[in-house]
Amino acid sequence: MRSPTPPGHPGSMSESVMTVSDPPEDVPETSDLLSARDIHKTYRSGAVEVSALRGVDLDVAPGELLTVMGPSGHGKTTLLNCLSGLDSVDEGSVVIDGLDIQELSDGARTEHRARRMGFIFQSFNLIPVLSAVENVELPLLAVGVGGRQAREQAGEMLHRVGLGDRLRHRPAELSGGEQQRVATARALVTEPALVWADEPTGNLDSSTAALVLDLLQEVNAQGQALVVVTHDDGVGRAGDRLVRIEDGVIAAEEVLR
């Protein structure tokens, strides 16, 4: 893995970016950042039922880089959505920072995600009418960072992913690789404790995919935990631990380093 950028370097986040991902106060201390137990999720359409997850147990340690692989349609993205609170579970518990996120109100769950998590999607999910820097500053504004400071930090993050000359460009004016780097910058700008990435290199050429992977490994080396869903074996084996999902269950688990 690439070593963290030294403090004071233009790419370093340690001095120039205010940390907004501190854990909530009065939360019980646990050895794991995330602990999920007996997760079940079934999708229903009329009389048709599809069991996407069937009793999944999974832990994520602070600072861990966990990769998730498996055949298409076997529950990888559903697992990410349920563990992050983007989707509800039918049975089981998902505890993050000592809080069962399924027991939180919608507002509290949304605030917890904004402060403690970042998301990278294969489809980018950028807002088309906003510039690159405006897209990246949104998570900072959502947690109360002032407008000027948010703009500065967003610009610094875009410089860090090699898009310092694209700050004012809207998504339609960027290539697919550039859009993914904007989405990656947006996910990382608040220094979240936990980053979820669903096929972050899936739509990228090999050189851009390597750049994104290097960046994810760099922030992981600085202590952020990542859960990365991927079809790419190279990405899958770049983490600390690899979990394979088949038919909605964990079929295998491998410690890589």
Features:
257 residues; alpha/beta; six-stranded mixed beta sheet; four-stranded antiparallel beta sheet; disordered N terminus
Structural features, described:
- This protein has 257 residues and is of the alpha/beta class.
- It has a domain at 62-81 and 106-255: P-loop containing nucleotide triphosphate hydrolases (Rossmann fold), CATH 3.40.50.300.
- It has seven helices and ten strands.
- The protein has helices at 76-84, 106-116, 132-142, 147-160, 176-188, 206-221, 233-236, and strands spanning 34-45, 48-60, 65-69, 91-96, 99-100, 117-121, 194-198, 225-229, 241-246, 249-255.
- The strands form two sheets. The protein has a six-stranded mixed sheet with strand order 6-7-8-3-9-10. Strands 2-1-4-5 form a four-stranded antiparallel sheet.
- A hairpin with a 2-residue loop joins strand 9 (241-246) and strand 10 (249-255).
- Helix 3 (132-142) packs parallel to helix 5, helix 4 crosses helix 5 (176-188) and helix 5 packs parallel to helix 6 (206-221).
- It is globular.
- The protein starts with 33 loop residues before the first strand and ends with a strand.
- The model is unreliable at 1-20 (pLDDT under 50).
